[in-house]
Design brief:
about 260 residues, alpha/beta, three-stranded parallel β-sheet, 10 helices, binds coenzyme A
């Protein structure tokens, strides 16, 4: 199974484990992660959630083959699509979520960090949101949150040009808490998650809700508009050219559009 889950010492760990495809996320993996988040929420013994990847890669984002083969009306644009279920479970998780970014975090790999409470990044990681280069648009409220965090100009570098950024830049612009040596990032994130064993869970839950509440409605409204455009763009000739170019290991050619 490409998603491994385990609960130990109050922490539910969700480990993305598909190293042969750089941890690209398939529909089945989103489903498993959504289920794991729901289970963590229900389990009173769980005080925090840890999301982690493999050495050198957190996730290379949505599986591009899934993007290509999905039929219209299914997948990201369906209200009950696994990716939407996962992101909704993340947004609605009332327990603290800690991310250990063990390496490359691309596309939704970076987007999901915007909805975690604590983010620790390996010094070997690179983050990127190359949606436009793939013929797509920002997703899951990144078009709202990224400019809020860093201002329009720096958000444009990341969301329009898709420029990758370093762990240090992720901390500087408020996406991450700290940069850790690659060998320590998971243990550090786990220690932070375990601190919630000593804190009152009811107060943690209500405090987290208060932190999120002011922007919750706007976030959902933005996700709705982004998802509509994203679904349309998935079927666009521009996106098809980008996906085919990825698998043919060549540069996409957008000159004909
Ligand atoms: N979807 C499907 N397959 C993917 C993938 C993805 N998002 N990312 C990597 N893979 C596959 C590659 O096709 C390759 O498969 P192969 O061995 O059958 O040829 C394998 O994983 C290894 O990837 P490769 O590109 O050779 O590794 P790398 O170390 O040179 O580069 C990345 C790693 C993450 C930088 C690079 O794979 C990448 O840019 N991936 C796509 C990122 C992306 O655009 N994601 C979508 C965002 S919306």
């Amino acid at each position: 199974m490409s998603i491994k889950t385990a609960t130990l010492n109050g922490v539910a760990t969700i480990e993305i484990a598909r190293p042969e495809k750089k941890n690209a996320l398939t529909v089945a993996m989103y489903q498993a992660m959504a289920d794991a988040l729901h289970a963590a929420r229900e389990d009173a013994a769980v005080r925090a959630v840890l999301i982690t990847g493999q050495p050198g890669v957190f996730t290379s984002g949505n599986d591009i083959e899934d993007f290509m083969t999905r039929a219209p009306g299914q997948g990201i644009d369906a209200l009950d699509s696994p990716v939407l279920r996962f992101m909704r479970a993340l947004l609605e998780c009332d327990k603290p979520v800690v991310a250990a970014v063990t390496g490359a975090a691309i596309g939704i790999g970076t987007t999901m960090l915007l909805h975690c409470d604590f983010v620790y990044v390996s010094d070997e990681a690179r983050l990127a949101m190359p949606f436009v280069a793939l013929g797509l648009v920002p997703e899951f409220a990144s078009s709202l949150i990224v400019p809020q965090l860093m201002g329009h100009r720096r958000a444009a570098e990341k969301l329009l040009l898709g420029d990758p950024f370093t762990p240090e830049q992720a901390v500087e612009c408020g996406i991450a808490n700290a940069v850790l040596p690659a060998s320590e990032v998971v243990n550090h994130a786990r220690r932070v998650a375990e601190r919630f064993n000593a804190l009152p869970p009811g107060a943690v839950r209500e405090a987290k809700q208060l932190l999120r509440a002011p922007q919750a409605q706007q976030t959902l409204a933005v996700i709705r508009s982004e998802s509509e455009i994203f679904a349309r763009r998935l079927r666009s000739p521009e996106a098809m050219e980008a996906f085919q170019a990825f698998f043919q290991k060549r540069k996409p050619d957008f000159s004909k559009f």
